[in-house]
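Model the whole thing, not chain by chain.
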Amino acid sequence: MNKLPTIKEIAKRLNVSVSTVSRALRDHPSIGLVTTMRVQKVAKEIGYEVNRSAIHFKERKTYSIGVVLPSLSEPFFSAALTGVEDAAEANNYNVIIGQSLENFEREKRIVENMKDHRVDGILVSLTKETSTYDHFDNLKKYNIPVVFFDRVPNKRDINFVSCNLHSGMLQAISKLVSMGHKRIGLINGPAKLAATRQRLQIYASCLKENQLVLEQDIIVSTDLSKAGNLKAIHKLIALDESPTAVIVFNDYVLLDCIAAVKAAGLKVNSDISFVSFANLPIWEYMDSLPLASIEQFAYRQSSMAAEFLFKLINNAAIPGATELPPLQHIIDSEMVLYHSAK
Amino acid sequence: MNKLPTIKEIAKRLNVSVSTVSRALRDHPSIGLVTTMRVQKVAKEIGYEVNRSAIHFKERKTYSIGVVLPSLSEPFFSAALTGVEDAAEANNYNVIIGQSLENFEREKRIVENMKDHRVDGILVSLTKETSTYDHFDNLKKYNIPVVFFDRVPNKRDINFVSCNLHSGMLQAISKLVSMGHKRIGLINGPAKLAATRQRLQIYASCLKENQLVLEQDIIVSTDLSKAGNLKAIHKLIALDESPTAVIVFNDYVLLDCIAAVKAAGLKVNSDISFVSFANLPIWEYMDSLPLASIEQFAYRQSSMAAEFLFKLINNAAIPGATELPPLQHIIDSEMVLYHSAK
DNA sequence: TTGTAGGCGTTATCAA
DNA sequence: TTGATAACGCCTACAA
């Protein structure tokens, strides 16, 4: 347990006071040039480095932020994390990671743990299960700012960056209509999810904007399990008059749908076309892929959220500073068209 | 900037000393039951929570470990991270993440930064570019233990968990031979990579163990770029006598190979079979997939590495403890056979 | 059973 | 230009 050198050590060697050393190390103008040089020389010799824990303690800051997100196995979130890392590096911050794995209790534990570690701020993308936000509200007491991204609470007075699916979906449905599609179905998620209500609403409005009527029989839902996905798509292809195109809750659901469709002897993009959400990088290598994906800009969302978080943190450090207006930014999604002719 | 309650505050309220409070809060036996109760009651009332930064500072520990890995967009590493997180949670530790993105300089910066933050230990899976290890050796000075996993340095006196590709490759090649394959090619990586030399050596020995001779014309290499991948596979299928099976450097290379093979009008798993490394979860959904993957147990490797790291950390905290023997554990890989009849 | 005092490493304030 | 000292929050050896 040999201790690392401290300014005290340097002070002793040079027979000066610790305050002189402290100042000399940071080139404080009040310290004479000779002294400064001597101090810095010795510091280098004995391999002195400032003990950040001491500073953190003194400044009541840890120079680390927490990131809570569902799962890094989703390319969307690993891209998002890269955005956070980049912003953190630019601000000299560390990133503490926590995967909630879509588990509400785990999310709570992670947040609690980050709070205990006194992170200076937290970025969050919610679990699918999350519908109460006490564990985040609680952070106010500790002056830990929170910025949400992508999966954000349905709640006022929060900071967030999210993505407006309407723009992308409208582009997609318009494209489908221009290609002659008239019956465009929807495979939605479980009713309890906010994302589900959102998808339905946007779907309805996009149909309307294209002068199509909403038909209940081509709207089905899945519980996001493989079985649920298969059941949903089978319901659609079993219809007397199946939809010729389907908007699918997300890419993972779509993978199962494509398998089912092919097993049923149908051809993707000719018998039935798909549009989905997420933009898996792997589509590039698949034989059957959606006509289009709705790009939601993971990196952009997360880095924007991170940058605002740092603004909040830095602003709080200024004594008399006025509070920043909340960030409530919504990025427009965009349709990404794939070459369906592979 | 309203400060959080401290033990001092509690002490003042109850007219006892801070040491009494400190002890009472941790149920120290020397403190009377009444006092203990009174202290804990007030603590609860004013919402006291211990300031970990102060403890960290005092104990010269941060209760966080760093994880440096190439890229979380690879499912292998995101699985590995989950292993680390689970081990960290069990040990009441935080995980600071750093993606090196296969960039040596970035790896160095991350390690430097983690050192500055005085993490209690570091887990590393190296960049493909990394061939010098000074930035890790340097950590000894700060008593920061390092454990490597999967992509480990070629060096003695380090702690690591890695995966022995031989076992899996032998299973795969034996399987291929049992299916009648006699010409089994290899698409290897760039020469400068340790993994490349390793693949070649294992490939050679597995052929030998199956009484096959090494044929240079069916050994090609790629620089891992898309163009390189395509060039490599084209070289093989352009041969007068093409191999009927090919061992491929990794799944990402294989994706390009499969595309090329299909474009050339060949059928995967009948005209040509593949075996690859990584075990992408997505294969399940692909039309053309390798005959088998070599499973390398990301979660198992990383959690084993993490657990040992915590042992090191805890051991170092015991004053007179003898140093632990280094961990140099090698897990056997395993062939995972896919149902090629989809 | 409880209190006092010192220390962890650094910086800021005030004094010299 | 430099030094002494207090403070950050907590713990602990020693004293009472």
